[in-house]
Design brief:
mainly alpha
């Protein structure tokens, strides 16, 4: 197996897992799916700059071959944006849960949430 095949397989698995989790009904699973999907995009961006081994990312007069630093900068920027997006999604999910009493994405109350609500009312 080559390094390119392993990276492509990892991107495929992360993308499939991320899409599966995004389509789930609970907000925590959706946030995890968005995170997995962003990891797949980061790997794709990184691999788009060609996978090179033992080459410095910075050009100098003494170095004849170097890695492309642009994908690394894009991935670093994407990591920061993903962190902010994830924090915002978690805050929205928490606010939605506190206002509706359910963590369902579509706003419906699941049977397990209804049981928990009845237990709180009995106290």
């Amino acid at each position: 197996m080559t390094l390119e095949f392993l990276v492509a397989s990892a991107i495929g698995v992360l993308t499939a897992g991320g899409i599966y989790m995004i389509l789930r009904g609970r907000t925590f699973q959706v946030v995890l799916g968005l995170t997995l999907f962003s990891y797949a995009v980061n790997l794709f961006l990184f691999a788009s700059g060609r996978l090179t081994v033992n080459r410095p990312p910075i050009w100098s007069k003494t170095v004849t071959e170097y890695a492309d630093p642009l994908p690394q900068a894009l991935v670093l920027t994407a990591i920061v944006i993903t962190f902010g997006m994830t924090a915002f999604a978690v805050v929205l999910a928490l606010r939605s849960f506190l206002e509706t009493g359910s963590d369902q994405v579509d706003g419906d109350i699941a049977p397990c949430d209804a049981n928990a609500k009845n237990t709180k009312a009995e106290r």
